[in-house]
Amino acid sequence: MTKTLVTMQTISSASQNEPPSPSQQIDAHIQHLNDWRGETLARVRALIRQALPDVVEAVKWRGVPVWEKAGIICTGETYKSAVKLTFPKGTSLNDPSRLFNASLEGNTRRAIDIHEGAALDEQAFKTLIQAAAALNTAKRPKSAGA
Length: 146
What we know:
Blueprint: H1 2-14, H2 22-33, H3 36-51, E1 56-60, E2 64-68, E3 72-78, E4 83-87, E5 110-114, H4 122-138
Antiparallel strand pairs: 1-2, 2-3, 3-4, 4-5
């Protein structure tokens, strides 16, 4: 509860008249973490933006950062011992670099847990992000007029 209040106070000081954008909310969340988790989430966010410059940022489920393109690509939850990047359609993605290391028992989701000091294969991660966006785009129903 305190975490949310601090984040919202930080955001509301930026603009009194309009609600904060999802990107501003994610900025505040990263700033509030103020440790390796914030640095990790910021680095992952930058990689997602490099991989998909037109990615849409959202905040759902009590403040969880979400990246979308024609559907959810991944979420970025922060826990005491890990930053968890969950891909809702992870089982449908090719992962030759074996980035997925969590939620492996499920039928649909896959996740990447990044622990303090852990390295992330940045190129493989960007490729995975692009593949998730392509999967979302490929499965989108076409409109009748297209």
